[in-house]
## 1
Amino acid sequence: MLKAVIFDFNGIILNDEPLHFSSMKDAVAELGIRITKEEYWNRYLPFDDAACLQAICRDRGVVLTEDQRERTLERKVSLYQQLIQKHYPLFPGVADFIRAISHRLPLALASGARRDEIEMTLRATGLIEHFRVIVGAEDFTLGKPNPESYLLALELLNDNLNHRHAPIQPCECLVIEDSVGGVQGARAAGMICLAVSNTYPTESLQAAHKVVSSLEEVTIENLESLLQEES
């Protein structure tokens, strides 16, 4: 039985992956590093900012001082904030889907994005009240495809639902993801995964239990049926 849903953020709720790419590309350009859109999507997209910068530099044999690292990360955040400028591009249907499903199931969010960025978007779009738990980049050590963020979100969700007789188990939880690394992490956590091909093509997301092109085509009944099929 489906008892909880954990959402990814970038690429599922907020359609801002192109903004993250642009701001990271320009930030590392000041270090003399060039990254392409293909590289970012195939290699760096699942990472939070710090892990993304670390991977970009490691792949090129570049060693940063702590000051360079901090300044580059600050530059990336500043560029991103300039690009988004209080305009929060949500994916079609996602706001209605979140509102509808939150009346039936407790929702959590697990993302490699900074928690302040997540909360700012959810407040501005009127969605923050629908999430009992928000796990951001500051809250865990190992990013996706490691399952740490999902397992932490479920642990905090169970703490939030302390009136329940039994805690929700990973196999009773559905993760909604858009990235290859995110799908791998959800499966490693022992959770059911619904992938949405917002960012990657369907054929790249076949490790998920089900792939859809948009959350506009998903209902609570779809999700419950999916979990029953996998139980």
Note: The two ends are 8 Å apart (CA to CA).
## 2
Amino acid sequence: MPHVRANGLNQHYELTGPAEAPVIAFSHSVGASLEMWDAQVAAFAGRYRCLRYDIRGHGGSEVIDRPARVDDLADDLAGLLDALGIARAHIVGLSLGGMMGQAFALRHAGRLDRLVLVSTSAKMDAATFHERAAVARREGYGSFIDSVLSPRWLTADFAKRSPETIAAFRDRFPSDWRGYAVCVDLIAELDLPERIGAIGAPTLIMVGADDPATPVAMSEDLRKRIPGSELVILPRLAHLLTVERPDIANPYIAAFLERERTEPGQGKRDAASFEAGLANRKAVLGSAHVERSLAAAGDFGAAWQDFITRTAWADAWGDPALAWKTRSLLTLAMMTALHREEEFKLHLRPAFRNGVTAAELAALIRHCAVYAGVPAGNAAMRWTREVMGEELK
């Protein structure tokens, strides 16, 4: 993979995908490298030009052993884009990469299309990260790397199932502790909460429900501060959710990047796009189900498939005024009240992928029983057991 000198340092990068396609810049977490995005490049390189790079002091990029700020990381990416002749890009950043993404959105707003913030925050506990940097400088990071990898970054179950992934991360941990320590000190000094209200780019925030590194509350705070942003909470996942379950994370990212740029509450929207609706529909219901529906439509049903894809999935589900979790809850509630078994069952598993928890579903059914009748609630409980089986205790 090539190197280029940009913003005063040698940066290691990979650029994959059609030359004329929109660019996605992927920015990794502290202690990781550009290989963290393998599954995303495999999924997106057919339709996007995928740029991934090693943050300063990581992977093949140069170690700069002097204090840095998150704004410096944003300027590193801007310099890399300049060197590669890229005017604008979407940014997908995880943890430290998401912190950089926030700073980029503020410093280089005219070069950003859409922003995806994964497992990140606008501020961390300074004492904890300064101490970690001090330990790294004093002892290296062998004393804590295993506890960082699991269960902090990846769930214990995933670590048992995929020991090769854990080994790969351990092998790619920065060989020079100085670059790692500089970035950990940078995280300690991070202080973006009062600035990010100025972010104007459409923003998707994603977090694992079981993330101990950047807990859900941090993403909820981002959601409150960044105007018009959308939050997705993925159940039973930890910090590196894009590594552990790319099959769940990638459709959310794809649907968000492909939406028409529409802000909530601005009146009439442009005509719904079939392509945008199809992306949303596949992200929620799954590609296999949608492809089967389209293939079975025939001449008679083709216009109907076009209608529901544009109207339900581009116009309704594509409206950023309501998060997808909220839409899932509303859909299940209406299907319960109207006794629409087939549609309830169709939307049940997608609701869990959209961040609905078992406790919230149970509360929803009880609420429906009050306003739509106990028989409706009984039916919803039965349909849930028939779909989920032993997965819900």
Note: The chain has a mean pLDDT of 91.
## 3
Amino acid sequence: MCGFVGMVGNGAVAAELHVGLSALQHRGQDSAGIATMSADGARFFMRRGMGTAGQALRAEDIDALEGPIGIGHVRYPTIGRGSLDDTQPFFYRQPGILMAHNGNVTNYLALSRSLAERSIHLLSSCDVEPALCELADALMGERKARHTLDDAARALASMLERVRGAYSIVAALVLDGQPTLVVLRDRSAIRPATIGRRPDGAWLAASESVALDTLGFTEVLEPAPAEAVFLRAGCEPIRRTLAGGSPAPCIFEHIYFARADARMGGKSVYEVRMALGRALGARVRDKGIAAEVVVPVPDTSRPAATAIAEVLGLPLREGFIKNRYSGRTFIMPDALTRNAALRLKLNTLPSEIRGRGVLLVDDSIVRGTTLRRVIGMLRDADARSVHLAIHSPPVRHPCFYGIDMSTEEELFARRFSGSLLELERAAAVELGADSLTYLTVEAMDEAFGGARCGACFDGAYPEPLSDEDRRNIAGDRRAAHPT
């Protein structure tokens, strides 16, 4: 999972791209980069580094990035080793393209073999690079120079046919003699992307609407499945449908990954989490679970916990204080790092916990290690009982589309068999909780409304995956990030 911004305007864009990346920092803390292009496409500028946007890109880096068009990226690796070589954006010399993406290219190894047969060799293990190479190769096949928008549309259609998986892509290049920003989504529009306009004629594309809000852009559209949108400063967007497709946006974005103030697919992430909480609250009530206070695990679960407290008529309390300078433990690369980060991230408020029956609310259980520690912290603070409520269904299947849970053995819910009630009872014992209540898939769908990808819950993958693709992705994750 990553975050990107792309901007085309009338002046230098690097500083604003850096601000946009800061708004998307929750989507990746491993590395960051910005690349820009001169208006005539004759010169390209790039700065990349490890860590957050503030750590990777200094003031002197921003000053060196010239041009009225560019793209930025914050990375959390789900394919590749997370080295500087894998840091986005990427650049291809012929015909001169900058590119970044969010998601997973599932047939990375097959693409690398195919490209090698055409004497095109990859320099990284980042899965955006073969997509960039496929686009550049197809575009050069159209003509050698002075490429048009129609050339690019055909080349993008060729790339979309070859490159499988779930991804949103942003690219910058010269078309029809003009600096042009291109945004493309996969056939199922699994990964998010949105586009906004500003009164000065500038356009901004981003993984989440929060980047638009931060920079004063008004959201105009979200690219449809298999649609490319071409953006030029002061001009109306040009939209091209490249193939057939049906939307299946990732519901885990709404459950966990996106910022609560984001809008995706016309839905408020905050309101979706509230709806999930109301549905979960009804199930907790129907099970007859007795608690005295509702406590969210900061910060993602707070909207759902608020709704649960309203349904149950219980007080909502902050049982944990979060260190605002710590990272998100779910996207830490290994178990040791996640455990150390959690100790820095959360501290209990014993006065809100001592002697009380606590209903602890969290968004999901992937590996279970974090929640086991959190429950232990409540026990240490003398909670009388700890009942766990999760505002998503059990994560039973790997995600191959960009969320870091691509191996079966790391998934907590797969350890248990039987009905949902039997799973909940056994899992509660394993976690050290008095009870566990998940949201059902049916209740999740009713609360969310509309099409979605929830393959991690129900195993229904909207984008095709070969057995080889599954093995390769899982193997890559095991090698790069041992648990």
Note: The CA atoms of residues 198 and 217 lie 5 Å apart.
